[in-house]
């Protein structure tokens, strides 16, 4: 794995124009060939295993990594037989560049989130919510609203897991509340992530592809609010007003916790500046932001001894034995340990998806789909269907397929497909990373069929968000 890093970083040194999309007239017509059918079967088989991840306990990255290798082996074989291997090589390099940019961007974001978690910021928030003595209905709204507003920064998966931990702690023994609260959290986290480039991988993909700038996502805010509020208001009618037992827990933030939040905000600003002012990929700014965290980690390590001595003196003066014990468990901050705690299964799954979809594109299948959806249908209908597909297949491959098709659309329709791909996954528990993660975190309490019962209500929010976008942002179409 280590030997591949220089190659991935080196890909970023070449201008994107050097990896121009291959002219479809030069590619081989393989959609009705044995090779094409075999590649489709491999992809469908791999994705079936991905959707059965919860039941098989098989990490989702494994089948798509294998499928990507097999599909490109088939492509390489047929193109080499025809003496056109250079076309396949150029397409492969183009897809690797797409993945390299997103990999490094997500790696930095995940490292910051992991650092905040290690400094106990999320534990502190959780302890505050649990100890306030809210009733079930208040907790339902509080966890949902926090999920909506945290996910644009911390991503929908991390946010959903954090709020689920709160629900599981205060709702222990009340399976009905846990199920409906988890559905609310999934819907809120997905809706909140739809109007920010940092809220979901799909929004990040659209931003990095250059179809929507950072500020142009804001028209999606009110449609995203509607997507969350409509189902939440209906579901809240079925949440009891009784109070759970109050659990008081003291959580002390580790040194530098708040400063890491500030550094993360500065990192986001740096990425936006590189993209908006210099027209460079945002990943350059994110990697610069990783340097901020590394230097801060160096500072924390170098000043650890003096900090411990000062705190120990205060604890001894106050005769606080508990404080002394906590000081004995303090460990230096290590950035590379935080890097190792990134969601590598998700990152490798994303590699498999990018390469599989890229292979199917070269074989001609995405061209066929694009011809049907964006030529025979109108773009608005096609983009609404994208959201429904994302609930079944997962929004990452669906959005990457749309970007690979490169349909000619107005800004309003690019925002529409960003919205639908982001929130469409809420229709089913398996439709988003947040839903799949919560089925594991609240195993047996938040289930596929428990979520399915509320799908018609969530669909009302889906329709409301689309309708609001079409009305409020009509000038963008």
List keywords for this structure.
disordered N terminus; mainly alpha; single chain; globular; 477 residues
Question: Helix count?
Answer: 24
Strand content: under 5%
How do the SSEs run, as a string of H and E?
A: HHHHHHHHHHHHHHHHHHHHHHHH
Instruction: Name the poorly predicted regions.
Output: 1-25
Query: How widely separated are the two ends?
Result: 45 Å
The structural class is: mainly alpha
Helical content band: over 70%
* Number of strand elements: 0
Mean pLDDT over all positions: 81
Protein name: Na(+)/H(+) antiporter NhaD
Subcellular location: Membrane
Transmembrane segments: 34-52, 64-79, 99-115, 220-239, 260-277, 283-300, 347-368, 380-403, 415-442, 454-472
Domain Citrate transporter-like: 47-422
Description:
The protein contains 24 helices and no strands. Helices cover 73% and strands 0% of the residues. The longest helix is centred in the N-terminal third of the chain and has 34 residues, at 85-118. The protein is globular. The chain is mainly α.
Topology of helices and strands:
Blueprint lengths: L3 H8 L22 H18 L1 H4 L4 H21 L3 H34 L2 H11 L4 H19 L1 H15 L4 H18 L8 H9 L11 H16 L20 H21 L4 H21 L1 H14 L3 H8 L6 H6 L3 H20 L1 H12 L2 H15 L1 H11 L5 H13 L9 H9 L6 H5 L2 H18 L5
In short:
Residues 47-422 form the Citrate transporter-like domain. The chain is an all-alpha fold and 477 residues long.
């Amino acid at each position: 794995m280590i030997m591949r890093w220089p190659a991935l970083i080196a890909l970023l040194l070449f201008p994107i124009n050097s990896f121009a999309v291959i002219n479809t007239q030069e590619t081989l017509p393989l959609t009705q060939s044995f090779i094409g059918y075999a590649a489709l079967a491999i992809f469908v088989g791999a994705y079936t295993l991905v959707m059965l991840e919860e039941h098989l306990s098989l990490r989702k990255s494994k089948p798509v990594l294998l499928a990507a290798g097999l599909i490109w082996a088939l492509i390489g074989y047929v193109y080499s037989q025809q003496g056109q291997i250079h076309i396949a090589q150029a397409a492969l390099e183009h897809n690797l560049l797409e993945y390299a940019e997103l990999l490094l961007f997500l790696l930095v974001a995940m490292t910051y989130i992991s650092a905040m978690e290690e400094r106990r910021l999320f534990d502190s928030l959780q302890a505050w919510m649990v100890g306030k003595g809210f009733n079930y209905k208040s907790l339902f709204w509080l966890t949902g609203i926090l999920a909506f507003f945290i996910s644009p920064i911390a991503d929908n998966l991390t946010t959903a897991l954090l709020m689920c931990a709160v629900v599981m702690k205060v709702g222990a023994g009340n399976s009905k509340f846990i199920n409906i609260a988890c559905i609310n959290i999934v819907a809120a986290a997905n809706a909140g992530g739809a109007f920010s480039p940092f809220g979901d991988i799909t929004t990040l993909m659209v931003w990095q592809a250059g179809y929507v700038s950072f500020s142009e996502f804001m028209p999606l805010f009110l449609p995203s609010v509607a997507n969350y509020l409509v189902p939440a208001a209906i579901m809240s009618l079925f949440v009891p007003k009784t109070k759970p037992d109050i659990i008081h827990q003291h959580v002390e933030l580790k040194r530098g916790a708040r400063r890491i939040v500030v550094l993360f905000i500065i990192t986001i600003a740096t990425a936006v500046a590189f993209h908006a002012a210099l027209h460079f990929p945002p990943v350059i700014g994110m990697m610069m932001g990783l340097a901020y965290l590394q230097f801060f980690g160096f500072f924390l390590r170098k000043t650890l001894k003096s900090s411990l001595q000062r705190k120990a003196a205060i604890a001894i003066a106050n005769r606080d034995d508990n404080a002394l014990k906590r000081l004995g468990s303090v460990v230096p901050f290590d950035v590379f340990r935080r890097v190792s705690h990134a969601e590598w299964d998700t990152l490798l799954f994303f590699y498999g998806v990018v390469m599989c979809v890229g292979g199917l594109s070269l074989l001609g299948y995405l061209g066929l789909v694009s011809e049907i959806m964006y030529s025979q249908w109108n773009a608005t209908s096609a983009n609404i269907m994208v959201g429904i597909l994302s609930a079944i297949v997962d929004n990452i491959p669906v959005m990457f397929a749309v970007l690979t098709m490169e349909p000619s659309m107005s800004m309003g329709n690019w925002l529409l497909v960003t919205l639908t791909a982001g929130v469409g996954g809420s229709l089913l528990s398996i439709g988003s990373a947040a839903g799949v993660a919560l089925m594991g975190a609240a195993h047996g309490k938040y289930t596929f069929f428990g979520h399915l019962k509320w799908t018609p209500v969530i669909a009302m929010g889906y329709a409301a968000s689309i309708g609001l976008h079409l009305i409020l942002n009509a000038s963008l179409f």
